[in-house]
Amino acid sequence: MKEQKKIILISLVTGIVLMAAKFSAYFLTSSNFILTDAAESIVNVVASSFAFFSIYLSALPRDENHPYGHGKIEYFSVFIEGGLIMIAAVIIIVKSIYSMLYPHDVHELLTGAIIIGVTGVINGCLGYYMIHKGKILPSITLDADGRHLVTDMVTSFGLVAGLLLIHFTGILWLDSGLSILVGLYILFSGYKLLRKSVAGLMDEADFLILTKVLQVLNDKRKEEWIDIHNLRAQKYGNELHIDCHLTLPNYFDLNKVHEEVSLVDKMINTEAGVKTELFIHSDPCLPECCHYCSMPNCPIRSEPKRIEIEWTMDKVMPNKKHFAS
Predict the structure, then answer these.
(1) DSSP character for 310?
(2) pTM score, two decimals?
(3) Would you kindly state where each structural domain of the chain is located, as residue ranges?
């Protein structure tokens, strides 16, 4: 968590400096187009401030009131960031429409373009770095903040191109017209962050992670593991929680059951690439399982194995053994 805090702090300080530079460019040029970027930089600073707090809170240990930890706060951070971006976009669009109806002169556009271009390069470099670190650590907050900065870089480069176009053509309404287009793009970016945060808060299944877990289970599958069902996953910050039922031969004693369950736990944590807490309920096999059970020399087998069932999403997620499919 110390590394995450350090990265967010760098993002916060950088955001404050770049915000000052962008507003200086706005006051120099009186361009609504530049104001779109300056207004979004306020969101960068506020979002980074909340992200810093959310990372601090998510690092706190579990307690009686939060038995799964405080990792969900990161989704609130992303929600607030997305909401602020959308508010900024609406303000930009309204201001640009007003300026299109009541135009005013703009000046020093080349100087403004240089300032915005430099801030765009800095935001882009920092954004890609944060996305990279967000995947390694992993941290949804770093990833969201990084993607926001990359979005800011894209809008800044578009802004530079627009400013040059206005400068060389002298068409003043382009300043407000292009601002509206950028505002719509920023609005869509904010919506995507909101969608991602709501998905996390509602415990929407992360099929990318589940597919990786299933690949590990299929690759390392043992004959004793007759089937896995009722598989569910939740994310709390950078931790994954998985519930599932594991069907084992009904003649296994408690020590053997514990051994197999622990092996599944260790295997997923070692090879799935994400820190995982597993709650595995062990089920005894039934005679109806025999037709897909691979257990050799089974003393209670009622019929020979007839089919091979691959553990796919549609097989492992329902709360029923595979014979009931």
Answers:
(1) -
(2) 0.61
(3) 2-201, 207-324
